[in-house]
Specification:
Helix 1 crosses helix 2. It is built from 4 helices and 2 strands, in the order ααααββ. Strand 1 and strand 2 form a beta hairpin. By secondary structure, the chain is mostly helical. Strands 1-2 form a two-stranded antiparallel ribbon. The N and C termini lie far apart (40 Å). It has one domain.
Length: 71
């Protein structure tokens, strides 16, 4: 069910430039999931990461590996 929610959110994102900008400026998959939740789409950041490499319409989900901080 969450994958269908994710796909629906990605389709919505294609139609809404402001939403796309907000998603692209997000730092983490969890941030994207929170944006989606506010709009009624329910999936986790982990589910979004596992969807990496898949395409919905014109959107391809791509995981960005960002090096962490080291102490």
């Amino acid at each position: 069910m969450a994958i269908e929610q994710l796909k629906a959110f990605l389709k919505k994102m294609q139609e809404d430039a402001a939403l796309k900008a907000e998603v692209l400026s997000s730092s983490t998959a969890d941030d994207v999931a929170q944006i989606a939740l506010k709009l009624g789409y329910e999936f986790s950041g982990d589910e979004l990461l596992r969807f990496s490499g898949n395409k919905v319409g014109k959107v391809t989900v791509k995981k960005n590996d960002v090096p962490g901080e080291y102490n």
